[in-house]
Amino acid sequence: MVGVGWVVLIDDWLARGGPAGATLAFLAGGVLLLPVATTYGRMVREVPDAGGEAAYAEGVFPPFVGFAAAWTMVLSYAIVCPWEAVAVGNLLARVFPSMNVLPLYAVAGKTIFLPRLAAGLLLTALIAALNHRGIHQSAAFQKAATLGLLALVAVFLALGFARGSLVNAEPLFARQGGSGALLSILLVLQVVPYFLTGFESIGKESEEAHPDFDPRHFGRAIVSALTTGFLFYAAIVAAVALVFPWKELVAGHLGTEAAFARAFSSRTIARLIVFAAFLSLVKIFNGNFVAATRLLFGLGRRGLVHPALGRVHPTHATPTAAIALMAVLTAGSAFLGDALLVPITEVGSLAVGVGWAATCVAFLLRRRRGGDTFGRGAAAVGAAVSVAIVVMKVLPGVPGSFTRAEWIAFGAWSAAGILLWLARRRA
User: Fold this and answer.
1) For the chain, how far is it from start to end, CA to CA, in angstroms?
2) How many CA atoms lie within 13 A of 422 on its CB side?
């Protein structure tokens, strides 16, 4: 769930909401998503299937509805991969200025540098190779990177809260006036779903769980992942705002590591944060790559897309065609560079809202004859929250709703899905 946004986009979050606005948005967003996480936990326990949303929709929706929900969820995972492929160059350039040499071209005013692009393409190849070798290697890597990240972050969060000052966090909200606080929270709340995406990905790997794994633990893992994620982001925003005047951070487009380096006059702590961010980046790249390829595999196995995506390697038991497709999509998108970073979070928020809503509604339809009152209540709230996420992004006039560029990106993905759906019969 936690990638590198907490380092490279902290200025965007604070510009949108200010310290209090951003912190409250992550806390509120996380709490609002708990019913969605609860619903996924129940659904995965009953339907441990890589097809995810398509599997949950079977029997209660027509096949195309399940395909549309799952294809949209593929987008939510797939767009994270090029995001991280681009961000690795951005991150390394903060430590190695030599990454900003040999300009190639520009996209939306952002220059693409050869060393940055090469770093992203190399990382994409390594992640694809790791996933081709098998889920055991991928899972072992994921555990090590996640534990390393949490250990490093605990160190600098302790320093931040111990040495920070409330004076640096003033004013608490980016927008002032009667409705300023609410607007500040809303502008950050709109991107929170994108940064909390991942708790539901557990279902996509559920078929590859250890044979002795108790299915009841799927729900605990999902809720624990979501809770840890939103508390992580809220703590990061608060710590950064306390150690460095956030207005200066926004004006200078500084990252988390720069704020701590200036506050403590230490390059060492900045390097520690960048290393933690690097671990974070690689693990979320790998995690979303796994989720996207397993969901594509689930669609291919059902014949909802070309059946080649539903085949597995005879030796490694991994979905080779799905892995190759994700690698190509990621590498191609990486050529768009830094212009990709902020807009892609808006598209991601809509994509996950669609998938979450479909799952919650599917759960309600499966329980329409009664029973599990708590589960049905959670699913109803989860569906309402998910629909609200979608409405915030598509309704014109709502601050932070889709711009033309975001509509084009989402429209292109939807058109590709329709073509795959139509081509499946010929295949």
Assistant:
1) 35
2) 6
Strand residues in 51-136 grouped as ranges (E): 103-107, 110-113
- Residues 362 and 60: beta-carbon distance below 8 Å: yes
Which residue range forms the structural domain that includes residue 266? 5-423
* Amino acid, res. 322: A
Q: Give the C-alpha separation, 210 to 387, whole Å.
A: 34
**Identity of the amino acid at 301:** R
- Give the chain's length: 427
For residue 354, count other CB atoms closer than 10 A to its CB: 24
Domain count, the chain: 1
Instruction: Report the CATH number at residue 153.
Output: 1.20.1740.10
| Pairwise CA distance, residues 206 & 202, whole Å | 6
Confidence check: pLDDT of 178 > 80: no
Determine contact, residues 298/139, Cβ cutoff 8 Å: no
Q: What pLDDT digit, counting tens, does each position of 59-111 carry?
A: 899 999 999 999 999 998 888 888 888 888 888 887 788 888 998 988 877 88
Per-position DSSP letters for 2-61, written without gaps between them: --SHHHHSHHHHHHHHHHHHHHHHHHHHHHHHHHHHHHHHHHHHH---TTTHHHHHBTTB
Q: At what angle do helices 267-301 and 63-78 cross, to 10 degrees?
A: 160
Note the pLDDT tens digit of each residue in 206-238. 888 888 888 889 999 999 999 999 999 999 999
Secondary structure class of 249 (helix, strand, coil): helix
pTM flag (> 0.90): no
The Cα–Cα gap between 76 and 64 comes to: 18
Residue 107 three-state SS: strand
